[in-house]
Automatic annotation (TrEMBL):
One of its GO terms (molecular function) is ABC-type transporter activity. It comes from Austropuccinia psidii MF-1. It is found in: Membrane. It comes from the Eukaryota. The keyword Lyase does not apply. Keywords: Membrane, Transmembrane, Transmembrane helix, Transport. GO terms for cellular component: membrane. This is CDR ABC transporter domain-containing protein. The keyword Mitochondrion does not apply. Residues 92-135 form the CDR ABC transporter domain.
Length: 141
């Protein structure tokens, strides 16, 4: 079940047959989604030196000028936006940029908790009903 929650294998990479129903049915999807968005929402990301992608901007442009439209589209940040050489790009500026491709949303955290609670109540109800039914059946023996 861990494979279908969207972390080990991101939702878009899950085969279509499984993605259509198993992703939404898997309770781990709700647990992981809620935990990830709760912890990472608006969390500032600071890359260390080994995590930066380093590249050269075109002549006559600063790192900030060259990457402005790209960063506005994909996220992340430039450590040295005024530099004209060795631009240091970090893939994430905030934690939200990490979980967005996983189709997790901070706005859905309470919905996910409700779905998880319903899952637990349903399983408990089925267990109690099955126990009573099987007890009656086997008590007659």
């Amino acid at each position: 079940m861990n494979l279908f929650c969207g972390v080990t294998v991101p939702q878009p990479s899950i085969p279509k047959f499984w993605r259509k129903w198993m992703y939404n049915l898997d309770p781990y999807t709700r647990i992981i989604s809620g935990l990830v968005v709760n912890e990472l929402h608006d969390l500032p990301v600071v890359c260390n030196d080994a995590e930066f992608s380093i590249f050269q901007p075109p002549a006559g442009q600063t790192c900030g000028q060259w990457t402005r439209s790209y960063i506005n589209t994909t996220g992340g940040y430039i450590q040295n936006p005024d530099s004209t050489g060795d631009c240091h790009y970090c893939q994430y500026a905030k934690g939200d940029e990490f979980f967005s491709p996983l189709n997790y949303s901070f706005a859905n955290r309470w919905r996910d908790l409700g779905i998880l609670a319903l899952y637990v109540v349903f399983n408990f109800t089925v267990m109690v009903a099955a126990t009573k039914l099987l007890t009656k059946i086997y008590a007659k023996r």
